[in-house]
From TrEMBL:
The record marks 214 as: Important for catalytic activity. InterPro entries: MLTG-like. This is Endolytic murein transglycosylase. It comes from Neptunicella marina. Keywords: Cell inner membrane, Cell membrane, Cell wall biogenesis/degradation, Lyase, Membrane, Transmembrane, Transmembrane helix. GO terms for biological process: cell wall organization; peptidoglycan biosynthetic process. It catalyses: a peptidoglycan chain = a peptidoglycan chain with N-acetyl-1,6-anhydromuramyl-[peptide] at the reducing end + a peptidoglycan chain with N-acetylglucosamine at the non-reducing end.
Length: 333
């Protein structure tokens, strides 16, 4: 009888110990992490799961516990954690963190590349963006790989907001933006209007970049495009200031002068016929659409009104009057 009672007591004690262990393990695995605001943690390639737990303890994200030594034995699925940069958020539990690292749900960062800026402006922004590797970037080598013969990435990349993981390279970002532009051109080029004075997608990009720089008023883009198309079809020079400014490069001091309009550069559309040799900025979808579908108009001129919009004219006489009205002694389009 005593032996039986002893066995019962032993079983009860064992059950209590097991239940206590299960409870304590569950408490450990589901403990709330100690962060009060979003915090990044980087797991290096080859780092063990035990090393990750040690890192979490060192950074005071979780408390030290003997259960950390048996965690991955009891649940080996958590032993296979992927390297990367992860975001710890208030309210997360240790199990959430381990599950996130097991699935490789890394923190995504973003960069917004705006239309109307030059490649040099984009490049400066990209290499100064946190979490993008700003190591050596060989533009000329990439141009060869992409079979781009223009000598520059100007105009070839699609403005957009791009999402990336920590450690993304400049080359990777450029390749994604380049492919986005290629996809859009391939989709839109076949449905372009007939009778356009450019015969390649690249020439359309050049026109789009000029439209992009000439106006920020959405409803004017197609009208601006229509004026430029009319001028080219009538063998008139474009005479657009943004191309002159682009051709001046670092010599432009913010004030375009008559001497600048007379200076012969490959981009001075007061001196050259047709389009400049390359785009002068990165063009967004709206400007590309305007270049491919210009408004039908008789206008050959436009001049800035000072409020961001333009006055359009079909005759030189009307244009000269508009210049006097809106620009006084300034040169107009």
């Amino acid at each position: 009888m005593r032996l039986f009672q002893g066995a019962i007591a032993f079983l009860l004690l064992t059950g209590i110990l097991i239940a206590t262990g299960v409870y304590q393990y569950a408490q450990y695995k589901h403990q709330s992490i100690r962060v009060t605001q979003p915090q990044l943690i980087k797991i290096n390639s080859g780092q063990s799961a035990a090393g990750v737990i040690k890192q979490l303890v060192t950074q005071d994200v979780i408390k030290k516990s003997l259960w950390s030594k048996v965690l991955f034995r009891l649940e080996p699925k958590f032993a296979k954690l992927k390297s990367g940069t992860y975001e710890l958020l208030p309210g997360m539990r240790l199990s959430d963190v381990l599950r996130m690292m097991r699935k490789g749900d890394e923190k995504l960062f973003s960069i917004t590349l705006v239309e109307g800026l030059r490649w040099r402006d984009w490049y400066a922004q990209i290499i100064n963006t946190p979490n993008i590797l700003s190591g050596e970037f060989d533009e000329q080598q990439l141009l060869k790989e992409l079979s781009i013969s223009s000598g520059s990435l100007e105009g070839w990349l699609m403005p957009d907001t791009y999402w990336f993981h920590d450690g993304y390279s400049v080359k990777q970002l450029v390749e994604v933006a380049y492919q986005a532009m290629q996809d859009y051109l391939a989709e839109q080029w076949p449905s372009r209007d007939q009778g356009l004075p450019y015969t390649s997608q690249y020439e359309a990009l050049i026109m789009a970049s000029i439209i992009e720089k000439e106006t920020a008023v959405a409803q004017e883009r197609a009208h601006i495009a229509g004026v430029f198309v009319n001028r080219l079809n009538n063998h008139m020079r474009l005479q657009t200031d943004p191309t002159v400014i682009y051709g001046l490069g670092d010599q432009f001091d913010g004030d375009i002068k008559r001497a600048d309009l007379r200076r012969l550069t490959p981009y001075n559309t007061y001196r050259i016929n047709g389009l400049p040799p390359t785009p002068i900025a990165m063009s967004g979808k709206a400007a590309i659409d305007a270049a491919l579908h210009p408004a039908t108009t008789d206008d050959l001129y436009f001049v800035a009104k000072g409020d961001g919009s333009h006055h359009f004219s079909a005759s030189l006489q009307e244009h000269n009057q508009a210049v006097k009205r809106y620009q006084l002694n300034q040169s107009g389009q």
